[in-house]
Design brief:
The structure holds two protein chains of two kinds.
Chain A lengths: L6 H5 L8 H45 L9 E8 L2 E5 L9 E5 L5 E11 L4 E9 L4 E9 L9 H6 L1 H4 L5 E2 L14 E3 L9 E3 L5 H24 L1 H5 L3 H4 L2
Parallel strand pairs in A: 8-9
Antiparallel strand pairs in A: 1-2, 1-3, 3-4, 4-5, 5-6, 6-7
Chain B lengths: L12 H10 L10 H6 L4 H24 L9 H23 L1 H7 L10 H11 L4 H31 L1 E2 L2 E2 L14 H36 L1
Antiparallel strand pairs in B: 1-2
Helix pairs in contact in B: 1-7, 3-4, 3-6, 3-7, 4-5, 4-6, 6-7, 7-8
The chains are: A alpha+beta, B mainly alpha.
Chain lengths: ~240, ~220
């Protein structure tokens, strides 16, 4: 890093060295002012940031699950693991790995999960809808992609109708014992898709396509068998809980 | 440390305009080129980065100027960096709270304002020698000058690279975007073109002044 030439500083005779205590006192004062300002800024902005992130997540979940009525339906966030299904309150919704949308009657409308894998320049993060009845993915939105603009960025990916058509009825059937995926998702070269569990890559953006496909595979391999095992718990929740 | 005379001079329009034109951080001093090239792929990003840098310039200049008689020379750079980092953290939180999209688009370049030499340069060469009002006016001039430069780049790159300006389409669906302009090489091309343009303006002005002086000599 360069700074502007400052002959005044370079040529000025150095004043007598202050005592170490004076130097530490000055640095302490500056650190105290800095700490105070940072804490004030954090306290003021943190609730706003959390609220905005929550709204953005809710909007993405409502957008990706087909047939959602934003006025009446409710989103519920869960963490799902081999240890069980845990419902999260709104404050910790960002830690969820499974989102469900329920009608006002408590009936399940659809499920959404997040996928993330390395793209061309960084992680490509997506949110996709999973339909437990057809055991398929039926919607996808890109949450974050810093891949090359015009090739693998969010706008280009979501504007590519042929590629987005991959995520209608993309098969993620579980095995008979519900312990795994029968045919894990795989991304194939543009124009070579032959199976319902394959993702046909975008022409010119194969690495971004693979990132998206691999993110889906990682998430579905881990979560879909668990969803199928606990489907009865997810399919409906008490009406009173929907309004909470 | 306050200079014996520097702080006493009155604030003039020149104190503000210097940063905007004569000492423009990007087009004249070629400072802060890292964010200049990296985030100017759209006009909104350019404005966001310009606004954030201006805020940090104003905040750090004010605090450095206020504390100029307290900070010993031996620890001045460490002190300035802590002060600048404080305002960068504040602006980081503020942008995150204002717009998640802008925050995602600017990415790590908000935090990297800490090492933007325009800000440390202002603290060292101006705010540490002048009273707060003058430092604020000078910082505002530099901030507006930096924002102006980013906007010049961001507008051209967005128009050519996406066919839009501030997100509004300009040429219709038939326009084939010139994608290279919103990629890193586009930053270099457009910066180079603007530098050529400003160098040409400067040369033309100097030529006119020389011609006028020659005419005056001939008349005299």
């Amino acid at each position: 890093m360069t700074t502007e030439a400052n002959p005044a500083v370079a040529q000025a005779p150095m004043s007598p060295m202050p005592s170490p205590v004076a130097l530490i006192r000055t640095l302490g004062l500056i650190a105290m002012i800095a700490g105070l300002l940072v804490v004030l800024a954090f306290e003021f902005t943190d609730p706003i940031i959390r609220e905005k992130e929550l709204r953005a997540l809710e909007s993405a979940v409502f957008k990706v699950i087909p047939g959602v009525d934003e006025r009446t339906d409710t989103r519920v966030s869960y963490t799902l693991s081999a240890d069980g299904l845990k419902r999260l309150d709104e404050k910790s919704a960002a830690d969820a790995n499974l989102f469900a949308v329920y009608e006002s009657s408590g009936k399940l409308v659809g499920l959404a999960m997040q996928g993330a894998a390395q793209g061309y320049s960084d992680l490509v993060s997506t949110l996709f809808a999973y339909d437990p009845k057809c055991q398929c993915i039926n919607g996808l939105t890109v949450l974050k992609s810093t891949d090359t603009p015009g090739f693998g960025d969010k706008k280009t990916v979501e504007g590519n109708e042929k590629f987005m058509a991959n995520f209608k009825d993309l098969s993620v059937e579980v095995t008979d014992d519900k312990s795994g995926i029968a045919h894990p998702i795989e991304t194939v070269k543009h124009g070579t898709k032959t199976e319902p569990w394959q993702v046909d890559a975008m022409s010119g953006a194969t690495i971004s396509s693979r990132g998206i496909g691999h993110g889906l595979r990682l998430a579905t391999d881990k979560l879909v068998p668990l969803v199928q095992q606990r489907l009865s718990e997810l399919e409906s929740i008490p009406k009173a809980e929907v309004s909470n | 440390m306050a200079s014996p005379t520097g702080g006493k001079k009155p604030i003039t329009l020149d104190t503000f305009l210097r940063g905007l034109w004569e000492e423009n951080p990007v087009f004249v001093m070629l400072l802060g080129l890292c964010p200049t090239l990296a985030v100017t792929n759209s006009a909104v990003n350019a404005l966001g980065m310009g606004g954030a840098t201006t805020f940090v310039l104003l905040g750090s200049s004010a605090l450095v100027s206020l504390l100029r008689n307290v900070i010993p020379k031996q620890v001045r750079i460490a002190s300035y960096i802590v002060i600048i980092a404080t305002f960068v953290t504040i602006v980081d939180y503020a942008i995150h709270a204002l717009s998640l999209e802008l925050y995602a688009a600017l990415g790590a370049f908000i935090q990297l304002i800490v090492v933007n030499c325009i800000i440390l340069g202002r603290a060292e060469s101006f705010a540490s020698k002048h009273r707060i009002s003058k430092s604020l006016v000078n910082a505002l001039g530099q901030g507006v000058g930096f924002t102006f430069a980013l906007l010049c780049l961001g507008s051209v790159r967005e128009i050519l690279g996406s066919g839009t300006l501030f997100g509004f389409p300009l040429f219709g669906d038939s326009y084939q975007p010139w994608v290279v302009m919103i990629l890193p090489p586009g930053g270099f091309f457009v910066t180079g073109a603007w530098l050529l343009f400003f160098a040409w303006l400067k040369e033309r002005k100097q030529r006119k002044v020389a011609e006028q002086e020659e005419a005056l000599h001939a008349a005299g």
